[in-house]
Amino acid sequence: MAVRFPHLRTLCLALVLGTAGLAPALAQDDPAPPAKQQKKLPEAPAKLPKAERTKNLDFLFGALKAAPDDASAKHVEARIWAIWLQTPSDTAALLMARAKAAVDAQKIEVAIKLLDSVIKLRPDYIEAWNRRATLYYMQNDYARSLSDIREVLIREPRHFGALAGLGMIMQDVGDEKRALEAYRKALAVNPHLEKIPDQVKALTEKVEGRDI
Description:
There is one protein chain. The protein is an all-alpha fold. Helices cover about 65% and strands about 0% of the residues. The chain contains eleven helices and no strands. It starts with 12 loop residues before the first helix and ends with a helix.
């Protein structure tokens, strides 16, 4: 999903990275997307701390799992987002800022073109892929959104925003089993994601049935 951009998430590399694993869910009779609605994916906080690039992400992910409460978790989560959003390229940073301004002005196609430029300039920059995936999701363009989520997760399999988004897309297209797998992977990385535990509970009952 940090200049308030929604994000996505779920990992089961056979599910996410393998096009073969994702295509069937989308290809079956091209299920019509749900009626146009206000789409909302997990997103980075509006205000982020200054992150030191030397800060070890492994340490932060460990702290995220061990966080004793939601407030502590949000603090750690913000530091992770801050690191993900950093780029050594001034040009990429400028283009990202312009993309956000375009989204704020409801110029989604302009924002996508700007993100195209960022990705061409810095294909290793995870958040450009993640933000473009979000915009495609907002347009109900699930195939392109999934393709970009795949690129995010290749570079950072722990991207809980991308994992959550993957689960939401799978749920939208009616693949509840893959949605459940995606949500579980997201929670394994970040147990403090909002609303996802409720989705897991509901889908578990539907997919696996209630305990007797």
